[in-house]
Amino acid sequence: MIMANITSMSGFLLIGFSHIRGLQILHALVFLVVYLLTLSGNLIIIITTTVDQHLQAPMYYFLKHLSLLDVCFISVTVPQSIDNSLMNDGYISYSQCVLQVFIFTYLAWSEVTLLTVMSYDRYAAICFPLHYEIIMDPSKCQWAVIAIWLSGSISGILFTSATFSITFCKAKIIHQFFCDIPQLLKLSCSNDYLRVIGVSVFMSVVIFICFICIVISYIHIFSTVLRMPSEEGRSKAFSTCLPHLFVVSFFISMGAFAFLKPTSDSASTFDLMISIFYTVLPPTLNPIIYGVRNEAMREACRKLLLGGQFTKEKLYLFCS
């Protein structure tokens, strides 16, 4: 009877981390702390790179948009999961699930393309320092960011339309803390999920091309850095590029693994951990990697928090 009700309901049932009430509260508190830390870290980067005149280089312009993407990215899944755990109710409506899938795939694609552009920016800065200002002209950077934000809608529309063209005839139980596409495919009783696989293959090829472009950029970067006579220059270049390479590799590999691995018929701690690795961890780590480890960012953030550099007038202009 319960299974019949679940099958006939309009929405879906998210099976989170545990059925034990105490663990549900603990999960909600942990996610809340992580969410607030992620929001505060990324918002500080957004504000700092906007109002500090010394952080107007293309690298910081792209970093600002990466932080904005990260704020949106973690806000798609984590608040819903916190609410479900606190309310002890995993129900999510059909329209909420559709919106979550669209925004999630939209932002995931935008983040991959932005990380690709950021690798090209580092390639131009290190390999062609004398022509850097011409190559990374501010107007070109603005158009690149506009293209990134617009291109994400292609991924969102393709995945959403293909996923929800499926006839869901099984019990609408999703063994995740959000509407995960691989889990939704399990609910199909026919071959109509092949459209989603076709979209996944197409997007995987495009993402693979982006990753190849990133690898080629870093091959040129590292070959240039190793020829630098100054040890300090090599150290500075590696400290800037290696974290970026780590973020790209981690984000793409975890996401690809989650989509390509076979889905299980029951809740798996391993599956949940993998989903955390590509939905929660990257937005949380980015402020640490790009902010704490960057000397210019540390100094700007210190002056911002201590009120030693930015006037009320600048903050008013930013808020306006």
TrEMBL record:
Residues 41-290 form the G-protein coupled receptors family 1 profile domain. The chain crosses the membrane at residues 25-47, 59-79, 91-109, 146-168, 196-222, 242-260, 272-292. One of its GO terms (cellular component) is plasma membrane. Keywords: Cell membrane, G-protein coupled receptor, Membrane, Olfaction, Receptor, Sensory transduction, Transducer, Transmembrane, Transmembrane helix. Pfam families: 7tm_4 (PF13853). GO terms for molecular function: G protein-coupled receptor activity; olfactory receptor activity. InterPro entries: GPCR_Rhodpsn, GPCR_Rhodpsn_7TM, Olfact_rcpt, Olfactory_GPCR. It is a multi-pass membrane protein. It is found in: Cell membrane. Belongs to the G-protein coupled receptor 1 family. Odorant receptor. This is Olfactory receptor. The gene is LOC102837013.
